[in-house]
């Protein structure tokens, strides 16, 4: 089993280790007055807004895991189409919280959520369904991946705001590769028929995936990619799926690839 596929319990140690490292680097990036109101690669957000967003998101996970453990009924999922607007409101509502207070709050949130993740056993990892506020019930393993997205991609955002050249670390990008297909599934805005391949060119999750979009949404499976293929290295794939860059090497019909890449809304 691939220990770099966190959708299996064999990937637990790998993803939790990388989340800890990415979070440590994130706190080093954001915990100073000099950068607190600096721009980022996340739209109009400043560094302080990114910190607020991750705190708000992590604290929602505590509610979700409590509900899953206690079998408490929760409201229907909010849905991803309205996620960007809502998380923006939630983050900006904390804009005036002092840096030391907000960073300390997030550090405490991080320690608490990692304790929850550390305690997940093999059955919990894939069998405990946890209600995500925007997406609805998901297997528990998605939540460490969400934390990796927060600390990995938002660290990229903070670095992007400096104007210096930079990139994603290989381990973070490799672990996020399988989750980007799920992200695309949940953010398909136009169900226009499209059939093509996605090729990840390196890393432990390298390979070809056939993707089809139709009236029922998006499906994907490993195998023959077809005549039109978009090739990505892991980092470019993650940043493209998150709308941070327009990357990829098109082999085949440009019109098919262009149509596919514009089927999704951003979160």
UniProtKB/TrEMBL annotation:
InterPro entries: DinB/YfiT-like, Maleyloyr_isom, MDMPI_metal-binding
SUPFAM superfamilies the UniProt entry points to: DinB/YfiT-like putative metalloenzymes
Gene3D superfamilies tied to this protein: dinb family like domain
Pfam families: MDMPI_N
Gene Ontology MF term list: metal ion binding
Domain Mycothiol-dependent maleylpyruvate isomerase metal-binding: 24-159
Protein name as annotated: Uncharacterized protein (TIGR03083 family)
Organism: Kribbella steppae
